[in-house]
Request: fold
Amino acid sequence: MPMVRNEPLTDIVDFERASDQKAIRAPRQDRSRQTMDRVLKALEELLDEKPFDRITMIELAQRSGTGTSSIYARFKDKRSLILGVHGRLAERVYPCLDRLFDFERLGKKPLRKIIHANLGSILRFYREHGQLVRAAVIVDAPYVYERQIRVYCFAADRFSSLLYERLPGTVDRKSIDRAADFSVRLVTSVLHQILVFKDFSLGRKPLSDRALVDQMTVAIWAALQEAAGGRLKDE
Reply:
């Protein structure tokens, strides 16, 4: 049976516990919430077009159809805008991970092919939202890191649950959890390298995304083989 997650499917900015709660003023009326949604949606669109440091408040106001005074009424500064839009992105991450590790959807698909396909999906998602993630890291907000850690832990839990079902019953759970944690750390490291170096090649030879996914799959499969004592069939 699929693991039931205790976390809510949404991870919008929690004004009560966020370290940066004073940066965003929670809307009290539907009209204010609609304004906030328009502003954050417009910022996401602009981030698809250019880096965060090239986006001006006037440009954001024009794209969202909102006055700059209305934006500042909800957001303290540009940094707080990133906190809000990063929360919108997090709303989409959990359902995506749920789908990637959904037991019914995966059926009897070989484990190695599942890993390869999921890595490809994660990399594509990251590429699509790279400007936003890069901006969130640059603002260096504690709440962004707290949110990212929750996502990483959830991904590791989901992967562990899949491995419990697919690896031989003789493999102990601690070994499975270690392999899952390593896998998430590996993927996170690769994604952060892409974040830092952008389109510059890190290494003597450039790697296509397909080659990168292939190599990550090999590394994760090796970790699983070690956890399973070499008893996995090479699919």
